[in-house]
Amino acid sequence: MEPEEVAEAFSKLKQSGKVRYFGVSNQNPMQIELLKKYLHEDLIINQLQLSLMHTPMIDAGFNVNMLHDRAVVRDNGVLEYSRLNNITIQAWSPFQHGMFKGVFIGNEQFPELNDKLNELAEAKGVTASAIAIAWILRHPAKIQPIVGTMNAQRLLEIVKASNIELSRKEWYELYRAAGNELP
Fold first, then answer.
1. DSSP code of 85?
2. Which residues does 17 contact at the CB level (< 8 Å), separation at least 6?
3. What predicted TM-score, i.e. pTM, was given to this entire model?
4. Low-confidence ranges of the chain (pLDDT < 70)
5. Number of C-beta neighbours around residue 145 at 10 A
6. How many CB atoms sit inside 10 A of residue 83's CB?
7. Distance separating alpha carbons of residues 128 and 170, to the nearest angstrom
8. NADP-dependent oxidoreductase domain location, by residue (predicted)?
């Protein structure tokens, strides 16, 4: 990116009244700092992929000082940086596993996770999708999921997640059922 050009475009958009707030997508802390050097506006959003089956920004924090793949910090601590700098993370693809490999809900490749999602969904009277979103909402970073549906009925089912309170134990059970190990 050419940060000076981006900053100029942001300035023009704000002055024209077309935009009130600014954010970025898939940027690490140093990329954000570089852009902030030229901006006159705060960056308040960073859209990043996060789901029960795509958790690298969470994994690194659990595996500090460990000698395995999950300990590698690939994003320069973007989760912690965002919290320190009042940048809201918006989780895109909250139902995907990997990078666009497909939906994990109802996928036979993930029986343990789907069993746990269905167990909690039944207990709380919602869908597995609502539980997957409740898992994201339970994180203390106050992450905002981007659910990406145009189906009104599905959206009505998913928004029930905002009324679900997962316990810390349930959150960790889902994290582990997704194949994540804790040290």
1. T
2. none
3. 0.93
4. none
5. 23
6. 15
7. 14
8. 4-174
Structure tokens at 156: 């009505």
**Residue spans per domain, the chain:** 3-177
CB 21 within 8 A of CB 87: no
Is the separation of the CB atoms in 117 and 166 below 8 Å?
no
Q: Using CB atoms within 10 Å of the CB of residue 23, give its burial: 0 to 12 exposed, 13 to 18 middle, 19+ buried.
A: middle
Which residues, including other chains, have CB under 8 Å from residue 144's CB and lie 6 or more apart? 88, 89, 90, 91
Token pair 């898992």: residue: 135
CATH superfamily of 3-177: NADP-dependent oxidoreductase domain (3.20.20.100)
Contact by Cβ (8 Å): 176, 116: no
* pLDDT tens profile 23-61: 999 999 999 999 999 998 899 999 999 999 999 999 989
* Amino acid at site 68: H
